[in-house]
Structure formats: structure tokens, C-alpha cells
Amino acid sequence: MKDLYVARVSITHGRDGTARSADGNLDVKLAFPKELGGNGVGTNPEQLFAAGFSACFASAIRFAAGQMKLDAGEVSIDTAVTLFVREDGRYGLRADFDVSVPGLSGTDRDAVIAEAKRICAYTNATSGNVETRFTIKDA
User: Fold this and answer.
1) How many separate domains does the chain show?
2) One domain, residues 83 and 33
3) What is the pLDDT of residues 75-96, one digit of tens each?
């Protein structure tokens, strides 16, 4: 194993607080969404997770395409992360991705997406823990 990067973030007051990265590039107010009884004036962990996961996956698509000498075009992903309560009372997450890879189609696109799923840090980290569903939009 070879460490490549360490992100350092400090959180105060949980979902009703702030999140700040050590380098200052992330500085956000956190708030419960209105749907969970909050005022919704701030971002929430599910939004941050959706942004991180989809950004990582889009980069994995572009990287995989490059390794295969293919041009993925302007990859875009619309992501919905759902917070839910399991039957046993534990909380869980589900991530739904609408993926657009306009530079590719057919078997090339399928091969690139399969490789992106294999190499993406988020798909590896969430495997078996977060239900993920990918819908591939045709160009």
C-alpha cells in the first residue's frame, strides 16, 4: 500500500456545525435538511458524500478511458444519495448515479465503466456497505 494523499477536516457540532479543511479549501456550514427537521441553511453529509463519490467516479471513468486509449468526452454524473433507516434501526445510504459518457458507446463504454467501478476509491470503500445503482445515459 502506498499513501497518496491525506485530507484533514475538522468538524464542530456534527450536522449543525461547520466543516473546515486544514488547507482552507473547504469551509462550509453544516445543517440538517428541512426534510429532517432542520432549517436547511447549510450543506449536509449526504450532499458532501454525493459530491465526493461522483467526482471520484467521474475521474475514474476518465482515467480508465485514457488507459484504454479512448476519449470519454465530457463525463457528467447526476447523483442522488438517500439516507434511510433499516429494519433493524441502523441508518444506511443508497447512491443512485445517472452517468453520461458522451465520447463512448457500446462495448467501449461498458468496459470503461466496469474498470472505473473496479478502480474508484469510493466504489471500493462502499462495496457491501452502500447500495449503488448506476444508470448509463446514452449520448
Assistant:
1) 2
2) no
3) 999 999 999 999 999 999 999 9
